[in-house]
Amino acid sequence: MISHRKTVTAWLLLTPMIVMILGVSGYPLIKTIYFSMTGAKLVAPDLTDSWVWFHNYVRALSSANFREAIWHTTYFAVISVGAEVVIGVMVALLLNEVFVGRTLLRAMLILPLALPTVVNAMMWRLIYNPDFGALNALLVQLGLLDAYRSWLGDPATALDMVIIADVWKNFPLVALIALAALQTVPKDLYEAATLDGAGMWNRFWRITLPAIMGPLSVALVLRTIEAFKVFDIIYVMTRGGPASSTKTVSFYVYQEAFAYMRVGSGASYALIVVLISACLIASYMYLIRKHGEA
Amino acid sequence: MKIKNVLKGAVFGIFAVSGAAHAAHVTLNALFMAQAAYSEDDIRNMTADFKAANPGIDVNVELVPYEALHDKIVLSQSANGYDVVLYDVIWPAEFAQYNLLEDVTNRIDEKTREAVLKGAWTTVEYDGKYYGMPWIADTKFLFYNKDMLKKAGFDTPPTTWEELAAQAKAIKDKGIVDYPLVWSWSQSEAAICDYTTILSAMGGKFLDADGKPAFNEGGGLKALQYMVGTLDDGITNPNSREYAEEDVRRVFSSGQAAFALNWGYMYNLANDPAESQVAGHVGIVPAPGEAGISQASAVNGSMGLGIPSKSTHKEEAWKYIKFLTSEKVQNKYARLSLPIWKASYSDPDVIKGQEPFVNAAKTSLAVMAPRPTMAAYQEASAVLQEALQNAMLGTSTPADALDEAAKTIADMQ
Predict the structure, then answer these.
(1) Which residues touch B308 (CB under 8 Å, ≥6 apart)?
(2) pLDDT tens-digit profile of B5-58?
(3) Angle of helix A263-293 relative to helix A27-36, nearest 10 degrees?
(4) Is residue B306 part of a domain?
(5) Mostly located where (chain B) (predicted)?
(6) What is residue B410's DSSP assignment?
(7) Contact B389/A242, CB-based, under 8 Å?
(8) Could you tell me which residue, A190 or B47, shows the higher pLDDT?
(9) Which of A55, B171, B223, B242 could form a disulfide with B199 if both were Cys (CB 3.0 to 4.6 A apart)?
(10) By residue range, what is the domain housing residue B389?
(11) Which residue of B has its CA nearest to A156?
């Protein structure tokens, strides 16, 4: 009896939160799924939302351009998140050591994070500028490059250049989380391992990495979701060019829904993106759990 | 009795005050672009003049890059955002289909219709209805550096595209400048404008009589082959493939190019010592023609001002539009964008100090070629932009790239 009453009270207390969650994410999600099966237009959606079943999905997946965009996005996500994790952990290890100027360096780490993405994108556009960019000047003066070249105007380099700009801005997040995790690793573990004759490399793989794996995987999941829906940095730096070589799936969602006004088909594009990132996150979770068991 | 009167008075008073307050507090939200044509300062000064002349109306001016303009207009529709919007000549078909802009046909009298350039009207007209007033009458002109031409031994600027390539080649060979030609060929509408100019010179057509894509043959194909040819010959700055209009102006104004294709606004800016290192040496002529086909070429790059159909201040918005597009205001601010009024082109105040610009405009504005009128223009343009890029980057031949684009657009229709 008491336990029943407790359950009722618990549900009552939870109701406001549940209503809010349903309101801010449940309803939009269901509406998006509904739209994805209609031919709704951005303007006057009521007049145009004829039911089309899975036609939008078939059209999206059979579009060579969209498949190309999925590939660009995957490439962007894998390379940028991979680089952010490697650089982030290395920087965290460095900043975990005791040396003069450590506090200053730690403070400087926050700067790229504090920069709005649009500002960051504009800044890197200037750095890459084909006529007076700092990157060209640096490489030419070092003798690594014969003449100034166009970095964002060449399909072979454009996406990699955007990735560098993204990594510069986002590796501090990984570094920050890794640094916080590093400070919880007991020092005596290292002392014991050293006594047992474990080298630096062994200590990293057997003590440090397992100890920070939990927080690090949170950063990994967060960054992957973010990287998979990348839009703003590309919109500002290349607008999808040259020759559509930097068009990512989010760019297609934007184009379908807002430039071409096809909300229905845009919704199906968006849900495909959600599905792909859900699969990615599920596999992360699986790997992490397996890691934890082992 | 007395109290009743007092009450009555109070009620009337409140009505009177709120009525006055209502009249005094109309705030218009207006959307403009910051890229070519009128500068931000010009727009703000005109607006200040309007506010001074109309004390009850306040105007919020918002400027966005051209590339964001279309999506802003469309998206603001559901939020009832703007009362006056600047829009491009290529959008009225789409806007009319979705009823985004107010039909103002009845507000424009016969006298106005007669007094404004014909090419300017096509900006706001669709299917016999008028969706605003034209404001910017503009096209792409050929700019040239007189000094460089003289050094290379040329007395006159080119009149055909072949001659342009030949002069550029000579200038490059004499080592006067590395890349004599600069264009706005990034993956954007700007590239379509350059392409349309050359296409029209070479007698090409976007769509045939049945409305099917026809740019992949004849003049349309020759135009793209010409563009790619200048890249292959090393006379076009290869960075053109990532440039927009302001990049073209910067490169030309810093003396790194002998020729540039750009909107009229560049004439006075490139001749302004504060903005340019080649001030005083800048010439302007209509974009070239093609022997046996055309004398000159131009693209209709005009823009108009309209009232979004959901605006709640349509009367005030129309007043503002009428003010901005009036002959008096346009003549006063004629340095960066020429007026839409026929009479302005013989007005000494407009002509003074910019005779070459006005002369070139007289020829160019009369031969402006339209981009295709279609509701799905945005999408068709994106397809064509990608095709141009593929050809210019060498990942596809001009013929293959255009064939594929034509097929995609035909499937879309």
Answers:
(1) B73, B76, B77, B80, B81, B82, B83, B85, B100, B101, B102
(2) 555 544 444 444 444 444 558 999 999 998 778 999 999 999 999 999 999 999
(3) 120
(4) yes
(5) periplasm
(6) H
(7) yes
(8) B47
(9) B223
(10) 140-299+376-412
(11) B393
Find which of A150, A231, A237, A255 to mutate to test the B interface (most B CBs within 10 Å of its CB).
A150
SS3 B259: strand
Number of domains in chain B: 2
Do A153 and B239 count as a contact with CB atoms less than 8 A apart? yes
pLDDT, residue A262, reads: 87
- Of residues A176, A187, A181, the one with CA closest to residue A105: A176
Distance CA B404, CA B383 (A): 9
DSSP secondary structure letters along B139-186: -EEEEEEHHHHHHTT-SS--SBHHHHHHHHHHHHHTTS-S--EE---S
Q: Where are the domains of chain A?
A: 39-293
Give tens-digit pLDDT for B87-135.
Answer: 999 999 889 888 899 999 999 999 999 999 988 898 899 989 999 999 9
Residues of chain A positioned with their CB less than 8 A from the CB of B100: 43
Test the B interface: residue of A41, A42, A43 with most B CBs within 10 Å: A43
Contact criterion met (CB < 8 Å) for B238 and A153: yes
- In this complex, is the C-beta atom of A150 within 8 Å of any C-beta atom belonging to chain B? yes
Q: Are residues B330 and B249 in the same domain?
A: no
B239 in reach of chain A (CB within 8 A): yes
Contact B393 A243 (CB under 8 A): yes
pTM recorded for the entire structure: 0.86
Q: Count of residues for chain B?
A: 413
Same-domain check for residues B97 and B66: yes
Phi, psi of A29 (to 5 degrees): -65, -45
- DSSP structure class, residue A25: I
**Of residues B117, B159, B136, the one with CA closest to residue B342:** B117
**Is B200 in the same domain as B310?**
no
Mutating which of B64, B77, B91, B242 best tests the A interface, going by the most A Cβ atoms within 10 A? B242
Q: Are residues B87 and B186 in the same domain?
A: no
